[in-house]
Amino acid sequence: MASKAGKDSGVVETIKTIVYALLIAGVFRTLFFQPFWIPSGSMKDTLLIGDFLFVNKMAYGYSRYSCPFAICPISGRIFGSEPELGDVIVFRHPVTGADFIKRLVGAPGDTVQMRDGVLYLNGEALPQEPAGTFEEVYERQGPLGTPPRCENAPVGEGDICTNTRLRETFPSGRSHTILNTDMSFADNTPLFTVPEGHYFFVGDNRDNSQDSRFPQAVGGVGFVPYENIIGRADRVVFSSAGRSMLYFWTWRSDRFFTRIE
């Protein structure tokens, strides 16, 4: 029979192992990659509800928001590099503290405006070309149970929901797809001038995204400070079409390690 001292020693070693594992995981999450699960459809069809990805924290350096609960003792940003227009970025909401994921469309000093659903950057329209139709089943999606918005509404439960897909291109030549459902008040905005040290973000699902087009006072994002940026989303690891990412039988086989445009 094992001695009491031996049992105590085994318990201590187990506790030490757990503590070390948690410390290593915490360092890894703080310095390198943070897991993120897509809860809403604001970035369709680039990102789907249920996509699971890791956010690259090394891409833009570190701020206090790089740590859980914003506890990093960092003033401003260290080892910082500038994000590029078109990057898909996770950032901390300036007011609510929630983590958001959107596409960067305006850097400090840029002017941004939506006119009839077309994004204008520094007075020039970003070209949009037809890219087919995005189709999905009309059903409640993800843990929030939110049904999609459909251009062909009304759509019955289980029927096909469609939205126009367009390919939008930045002056750099970088392009990505966006969705258009209908003409909404978000398709025409005032002219925004991005202030120093801030960035402007928009969702790819243009008619279903609370982003920098909306002021923070009404639930929008507004201008996002540089220090609120957490990291860049580069690749989807896997994707679940069910109510939980643990329901492996609902994983989408075509989205494993998909590169994010």
Automatic annotation (TrEMBL):
Reactions mediated catalytically: Cleavage of hydrophobic, N-terminal signal or leader sequences from secreted and periplasmic proteins
Keyword Lipid biosynthesis: no
Peptidase S26 domain boundaries: 12-237
PROSITE patterns reported for this sequence: SPASE_I_2 (PS00760), SPASE_I_3 (PS00761)
EC number: 3.4.21.89
Keywords: Hydrolase, Membrane, Protease, Transmembrane, Transmembrane helix
Keyword Lyase set for record: no
Main location: membrane
MF GO annotations: signal peptidase activity
A Pfam family: Peptidase_S26
Residues annotated as transmembrane: 18-38
Stated name of the protein: Signal peptidase I
Species assigned in the record: Halodurantibacterium flavum
